[in-house]
Backbone:
């Protein structure tokens, strides 16, 4: 479930002005993509938004987000992922994404420095640590934060492999639901805290 906290445009740490639940089905996805494409063309911008999903180690959550974005939104989003550090690609993240028909097995853990020359439209931090440590991006890049639980950390206390994988599957599905709202959600200037059961 999404808990939405509206903030003024460009203000990532301001107080909440409006709180509420995101309403599903608030417009045709095709119409939304068409409108965004038209607006970008009118403003002389590239057709696809360059979006960076950033987390601590580019191991799990940001990899899933990149995979979903490429799979679901490849017509309007050019996705990338990276980490403040590199922790290697998480094999369980690869496994549960494959269960949903998304192959991220050819991904690798990348440091932010590897994509520093890409002119991103948006940087989306997907964990609190990355949000707090996110470096300054110059130019017109905008930031957005949505926090997901850390599957490897939750899985540490699992008694069985299936129990461990259940954490990965839950977060996988939460990330999918978020990616399905892109790119429209970004233009609303909202800070989202995604709260899940640990």
Residues:
């Amino acid at each position: 479930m999404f808990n939405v906290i509206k903030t003024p445009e460009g203000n990532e740490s301001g107080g909440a002005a409006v709180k509420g639940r995101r309403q599903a089905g608030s417009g045709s996805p095709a119409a939304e993509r068409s409108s965004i494409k038209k607006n970008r063309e009118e403003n002389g911008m590239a057709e696809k938004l360059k979006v960076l999903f950033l987390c601590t180690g580019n191991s799990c959550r940001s990899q899933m987000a990149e995979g979903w974005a490429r799979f679901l939104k490849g017509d309007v989003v050019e996705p990338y992922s990276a980490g403040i550090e590199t922790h290697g690609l998480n094999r369980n993240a690869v496994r549960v994404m494959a269960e949903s028909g998304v192959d991220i097995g050819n991904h690798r853990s990348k440091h932010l420095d590897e994509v520093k020359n890409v002119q991103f439209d948006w940087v989306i931090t997907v964990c609190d640590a990355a949000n707090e440590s996110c470096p300054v991006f110059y130019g017109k890049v905008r930031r957005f934060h949505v926090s997901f639980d850390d599957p490897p950390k939750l899985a540490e206390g699992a008694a069985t492999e299936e129990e461990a994988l259940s954490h990965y599957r839950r977060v996988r599905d939460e990330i999918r639901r978020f990616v399905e709202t892109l790119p429209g959600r970004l233009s609303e200037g909202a800070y989202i805290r995604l709260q899940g059961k640990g």
Notes: The radius of gyration is 16 Å. Helices lie at 29-42, 61-73, 91-99, 128-133, 151-155, 161-179, 184-187. Strands lie at 2-6, 19-21, 49-55, 77-83, 122-125, 142-147, 190-194. The chain has one domain: 2-10+28-194.
